[in-house]
Amino acid sequence: MRTREEPHVFPLIVTSAVASAVPSRLPRQKWAKRPGGGSGAYADVRDTRGGTMGKVKQQGDVIDVILQQHNLIRSLFQEVASASGNERASKFKQLAQLLEVHEDAEEQVVHPMTKRIASEVADARIEEENQAKKVLAQLKSMGPDADGFGELFEKLHQAVDAHATHEEKEEFPRLRDRCDESDLRDMADKFQQVQALKGGQMRR
């Protein structure tokens, strides 16, 4: 029988996303609801250059952390699409950096565990990430002011959103079902550590 543990507080590593993009509370998926409820904990949201951007209410396992970042990513896609000039370039840089640290942490921490449970699901998610990385690299190379950026950016938007949805519907329910809560909490800690390291590398 699984035992309920008190939520830990993890710093959510993101990249200069504006505080208004952070929801005060994320809607919970039906499959993500845990027995026993629990109100979670408040954690500082920090960008990779330091400084607290605000507080979000988060539960303390890796799936909750990822769901929060999915929300941030979706918000930033909308902000890039609606911005122009220097603001668009700045927000695209934030989005690109967040996507890079997010996917790197998933590939190192989350997908290996999924592969032990459902290898075909993990392989499909990794392939989606590899395709998205190629498009992101093209966008970074051409820059937000280049002809064709908008069309290619929308292609990335659709691919990333579909990828996140696949994770939420196909991967995370399996992890919830097969992993102990203590394991998911440990994965959250490792996920944050990978992102902190990646963020430090990107600042240099």
TrEMBL record:
**What is the name of this protein?**
Hemerythrin domain-containing protein
Where is the Hemerythrin-like domain positioned along the sequence?
62-175
Going by the entry's taxonomy, the superkingdom of the source organism is recorded as Bacteria
Q: Where are the transmembrane segments?
A: none
Task: List each coiled-coil range.
Answer: none
Question: Which organism is this entry from?
Answer: Bailinhaonella thermotolerans
Q: Where is the region Disordered?
A: 25-45
One Pfam short name = Hemerythrin
